[in-house]
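Subject: design request, 765 residues
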């Protein structure tokens, strides 16, 4: 398709809030809320599984400055989920604000509210709790049908048929098959089965979870929170507090990163409950330790992949089984797991005759898992891409060549991806460009360096989605204001990704004006049009299309008003960058004049709201190639060069797309080499700070080279698809491939630490 030219889209526009953030201007929750409010903290369980037999808070209540202390006796007994999902949520209703049964080390036991942190900390030490310690389920392999139940309660319920069964410790379970799987396997030259394991990973965003609450002048609960999902927060709090949604107003300021963590209501319920009960303002700010032990990390998964192929590398059958650890609660458990198969199997669609995808999501007495960039696809792609690399090695075929033979092509129906058709797919061009940039032909062979280290390379490819098809709703309101500037109101949440800027670029492209002429407001549950929220790579594709449609409708309205002012039919005028003018160009009315006219005796709205939902979720694609240097004496891996070529449709903002890709790659490198969550035999997490939990720095990322090989997605705004999540998916399998090429040993358990690598090395290496 011929490349389209744009005026405001596909340009490196600076983020609207960049300068103020750079100058340290007030922007975040703790900047924009009062300091003289109640401080809220939570007493947390030291046990992985226990019943509270007795809890004495009377002495603690006597501490000077303590406003209130709440236990499980004081909260509504109506279960809910903290998952930020469209109602009815697939995640089971398995939580109370406080429960008599604690289910992981760090679970909430009591809520303490006081005038300052010192008083709250003192009171917390004086609360006396008698626990009946119970046997805990910490191993995902023994959780299903274990005699110990994480959720034995009678009022547990699942709103959607996701295969959940609390009496079996199942948060979700399902299986789907297409084709004669066993028949195809039986006629393959090579059948290979491997199992891969990924650990929980922390999002480790700079701004921890935090929420401020107050009662507004109308007696409503006003919540200001660092969240990706203002409308879902409103519903979740209504369920948790058992009050009408009309009594809750949620807004977000600037967000200091989320990466999916803030798609779950982690902190909001505690200050909300305090403020609703006391009618006093309150604030809760999670410590880094709390964010490490009581938040929503990536799901631990064990993925088994079975491949059936011919000797020439044709992949004909694939069987994927995922065992996922939801932890103590079911947030995002039923939804995350689906991507481990549905976003990995279709990559090899070209000759695939049969596939099966099955999964079990189990409850354990570990920290509850949640949403994290990649959302299950990351774990599944690590397994499938690693298995394909192993298959290529067994068959003696180049890892790029086997992908070129089997990769999904444009125009194909992907049965494993809900039978969607790839109407935009530049994966083949991504692979070609990556090979060229990386010099794969020369770098694919390992080389011994003069310093005794080994240089080697690896490759992987990936796909993701663009929103949740048939579910996600994006909305936009566009309004012409005095002096002819525009106000764009959205419900999507900018969490540092720059979506405010990207959506403004789209509006400016439609309205033929400069980006500076579009101001952006959002997200606010009272003022913004409904939006599912910023997750599932939906904002650019779904909300962006709503912006485009709203602007087109507004243009029509402005043409109508302009025609009336010019005294001619609407059919005889056109929309231009300067105003509405006649087709012959002889007469023109400026937008400033139209805005003024619209305020007096006007019946045609200059404000338009449009919602959009897509029946499809067109996948972006990516190829990643990495060069490493491995020290065989220590097992240390150094990233030297990483080439990423991405097909995200039309790139809306070239600068922001590039830094999105670079950031995702660094997070993927962290998942591959450093980041780990380990539990003691009592269920306590060792990596409870950034001293123990290692995330990569600029010194660990090597040279990152990012290019775009764009397709054009007709269902997206200006041909765009998503980019937010796909960029994290290739590092783990590509690095594992490079380590194999250097050592001859496959690493199937993440993270691939120096210790693991060193212990696995053959003596002769």
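Subject: RE: design request

Done. Sequence follows.
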């Amino acid at each position: 398709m011929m490349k389209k030219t744009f005026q405001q889209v596909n340009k490196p526009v600076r983020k609207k809030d960049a300068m103020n953030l750079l100058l340290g201007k007030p922007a975040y929750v703790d900047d924009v809320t009062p300091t003289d409010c109640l401080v809220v903290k939570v007493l947390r369980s030291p046990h992985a599984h226990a019943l509270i037999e007795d809890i004495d808070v009377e002495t603690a209540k006597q501490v000077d400055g303590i406003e209130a202390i709440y236990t499980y006796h004081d909260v509504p007994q109506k279960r809910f989920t903290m998952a930020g999902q469209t109602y009815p949520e697939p995640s089971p209703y398995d939580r109370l604000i406080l429960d008599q049964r604690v289910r992981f080390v760090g679970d909430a036991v009591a809520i303490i509210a006081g005038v300052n942190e010192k008083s709250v900390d003192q009171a917390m030490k004086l609360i006396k709790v008698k626990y009946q310690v119970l046997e805990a389920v910490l191993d995902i392999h023994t959780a299903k049908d274990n005699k110990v139940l994480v959720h034995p309660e009678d009022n547990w319920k699942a709103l959607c048929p996701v295969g959940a069964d609390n009496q079996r410790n199942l948060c979700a379970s399902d299986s789907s098959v297409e084709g004669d799987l066993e028949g195809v396997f039986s006629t393959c030259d090579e059948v290979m089965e491997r199992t891969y394991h990924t650990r929980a990973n922390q999002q480790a965003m700079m701004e921890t979870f935090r929420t401020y609450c107050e009662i507004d002048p109308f007696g409503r609960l006003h919540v200001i929170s660092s969240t990706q999902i203002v409308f879902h927060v409103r519903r979740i709090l209504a369920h948790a507090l058992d009050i009408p949604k009309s009594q809750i107003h949620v807004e977000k300021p600037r967000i200091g990163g989320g990466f999916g963590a803030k798609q779950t209501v982690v902190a909001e319920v505690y200050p909300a409950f305090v403020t609703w009960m006391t009618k006093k303002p309150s604030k809760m700010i999670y410590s880094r330790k709390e964010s490490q032990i009581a938040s929503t990390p990536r799901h631990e998964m064990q993925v088994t992949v079975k491949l059936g192929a011919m000797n020439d590398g044709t992949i004909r059958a694939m069987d994927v089984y995922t065992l996922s650890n939801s932890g103590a609660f079911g947030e995002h458990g039923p939804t995350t797991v689906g991507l481990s198969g549905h976003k990995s199997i279709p990559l090899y669609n070209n000759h695939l005759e049969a596939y099966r995808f099955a999964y079990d999501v189990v409850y354990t007495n570990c920290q509850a898992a949640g949403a994290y960039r990649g959302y299950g696809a990351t774990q599944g792609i690590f397994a499938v891409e690693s298995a394909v690399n192993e298959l290529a090695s067994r068959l003696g075929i180049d890892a790029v060549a086997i992908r070129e033979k089997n990769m999904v092509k444009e125009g194909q129906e992907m049965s494993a991806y809900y039978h969607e058709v790839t109407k935009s797919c530049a994966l083949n061009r991504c692979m070609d460009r990556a090979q060229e940039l990386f010099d794969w032909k020369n770098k694919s062979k390992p080389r011994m360096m003069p310093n005794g280290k080994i240089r080697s390379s690896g490759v992987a490819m990936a796909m993701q989605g663009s929103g949740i098809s048939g579910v996600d709703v994006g909305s936009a309101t566009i309004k012409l204001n005095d002096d002819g500037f525009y106000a764009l109101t959205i419900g999507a949440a900018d969490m540092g990704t720059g979506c405010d800027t990207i959506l403004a670029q789209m509006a400016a492209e439609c309205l033929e004006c400069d980006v500076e002429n579009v101001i952006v407001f959002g997200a606010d549950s009272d003022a913004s049009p409904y939006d599912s929220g910023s997750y599932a790579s939906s904002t650019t594709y779904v909300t962006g299309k709503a912006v485009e449609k709203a602007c087109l409708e507004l243009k029509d309205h402005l043409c109508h008003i302009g025609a009336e002012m010019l005294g001619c039919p609407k059919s005889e005028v056109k929309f231009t960058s300067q105003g509405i003018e006649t087709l012959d160009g002889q007469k023109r009315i400026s937008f400033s004049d139209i805005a003024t006219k619209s305020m007096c005796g006007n019946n045609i709205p200059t404000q338009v709201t449009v919602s959009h939902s897509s029946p499809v979720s067109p996948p972006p694609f990516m190829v990643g190639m990495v060069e490493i240097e491995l020290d065989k004496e220590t097992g240390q891996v150094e990233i030297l060069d990483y080439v990423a070529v991405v097909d995200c449709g039309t790139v809306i903002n070239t600068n922001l797309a590039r830094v999105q890709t670079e950031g995702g790659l660094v997070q993927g490198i962290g998942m591959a080499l450093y980041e780990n969550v380990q539990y003691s035999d009592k269920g306590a997490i060792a990596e409870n700070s950034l001293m123990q939990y290692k995330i990569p720095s600029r010194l660990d990322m090597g040279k990152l080279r990012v290019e775009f090989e764009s397709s054009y997605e007709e269902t997206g705004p200006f041909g765009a698809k998503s980019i937010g999540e796909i960029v994290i998916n290739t590092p783990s399998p590509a690095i594992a491939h490079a380590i194999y090429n250097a050592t001859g040993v496959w690493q199937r358990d993440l993270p691939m630490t120096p210790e693991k690598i060193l212990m696995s090395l053959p003596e002769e290496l």
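The chain has 20 helices and 29 strands.
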